[in-house]
Amino acid sequence: MEKTVISVVGPTAIGKTKLAIAIAQQYKTEIISADSRQFFKEMNIGTAVPSPEELAAAPHHFIQHKSILEPYSVGDFERDAIAKLESLFETKDIVVLVGGSGLYVDAVTKGLDHFPEVDAAIRPRLNQELATQGIAVLQNRLKELDPEYFNKVDIQNPHRLVRALEICIGTGKPYSSFLNKDKNKRPFKTITLGIEAEREMIYERINQRVDLMVDAGLIDEVKSLIENKALNALQTVGYKELFNYFEGLWQLDFAISEIKKNTRRFAKRQLTWFRRATETIWVDFDEEITVIIDKIETEIK
């Protein structure tokens, strides 16, 4: 049988963990997490890390295996995840990949784009501009240097803007000119399952999840991380809003409402990313697992 990765994707709070576990149990296999914030052991409640019961239901990898104090890039994850897949495929024909971080999912299933080395001083300068002049300055510069990428990137994501501008400035060429070139072909087949629901249902589930996080102790978790708030890992919805509360900039009720709003926006961006892949098999969030397994079996055969 051809080695196969079953990739479960979709917006936040849609039920990816539940489906991934059900599939892993069906095929007696293991799960690789591609959620870029669940990697960090200090971030538990705000990243919706699987519960102890869920972690016990199927073996998981890349859950809280790093500290926020350790640099860990998407390239590091690609290397580690591919090595883990090679190890798992020695005894299994199928492995489940699950996560809402589209770039990290693609890093495993498709490989990353490769970029030239550039002057390491460029990024700190861009980050300084971001901090002192605001995101609009970076947006306008990217629009000037690489209009093609500007038109498809999430221009509200400062990390993406800085990375693209770093390459534009360091190479004198558009960031987009390096995309989709000579990626490493994967020695496995990928079946991608996307979970979807009506927008109102997704938003309702997000609002409920945020309330549950607050009840579970999110505020205390964020308070314990204040001294590290400048770290990249903590530039995350659910954390940055509460940092504003602790700094006295916002009232608590407003901060929580902003978490809900920004999570809804994030879910919209996730769907935009995942819908670009025409080969994805979309299933309803409440689809019976037997129906989903039948669809997987059809693809495998």
TrEMBL record:
<dbReference type="InterPro" id="IPR039657">
    <property type="entry name" value="Dimethylallyltransferase"/>
</dbReference>
<dbReference type="InterPro" id="IPR027417">
    <property type="entry name" value="P-loop_NTPase"/>
</dbReference>
<keyword id="KW-0808">Transferase</keyword>
<dbReference type="GO" id="GO:0052381">
    <property type="term" value="F:tRNA dimethylallyltransferase activity"/>
</dbReference>
<dbReference type="GO" id="GO:0006400">
    <property type="term" value="P:tRNA modification"/>
</dbReference>
<keyword id="KW-0819">tRNA processing</keyword>
<comment type="subunit">
    <text>Monomer.</text>
</comment>
<keyword id="KW-0460">Magnesium</keyword>
<comment type="similarity">
    <text>Belongs to the IPP transferase family.</text>
</comment>
<feature type="binding site">
    <location>
        <begin position="12"/>
        <end position="17"/>
    </location>
    <ligand>
        <name>substrate</name>
    </ligand>
</feature>
<feature type="site" description="Interaction with substrate tRNA">
    <location>
        <position position="123"/>
    </location>
</feature>
<feature type="region of interest" description="Interaction with substrate tRNA">
    <location>
        <begin position="35"/>
        <end position="38"/>
    </location>
</feature>
<keyword id="KW-0547">Nucleotide-binding</keyword>
<dbReference type="InterPro" id="IPR018022">
    <property type="entry name" value="IPT"/>
</dbReference>
<dbReference type="GO" id="GO:0005524">
    <property type="term" value="F:ATP binding"/>
</dbReference>
<feature type="binding site">
    <location>
        <begin position="10"/>
        <end position="17"/>
    </location>
    <ligand>
        <name>ATP</name>
    </ligand>
</feature>
<keyword id="KW-0067">ATP-binding</keyword>
<comment type="function">
    <text>Catalyzes the transfer of a dimethylallyl group onto the adenine at position 37 in tRNAs that read codons beginning with uridine, leading to the formation of N6-(dimethylallyl)adenosine (i(6)A).</text>
</comment>
<dbReference type="Pfam" id="PF01715">
    <property type="entry name" value="IPPT"/>
</dbReference>
<protein>
    <recommendedName>
        <fullName>tRNA dimethylallyltransferase</fullName>
        <ecNumber>2.5.1.75</ecNumber>
    </recommendedName>
</protein>
<feature type="site" description="Interaction with substrate tRNA">
    <location>
        <position position="101"/>
    </location>
</feature>
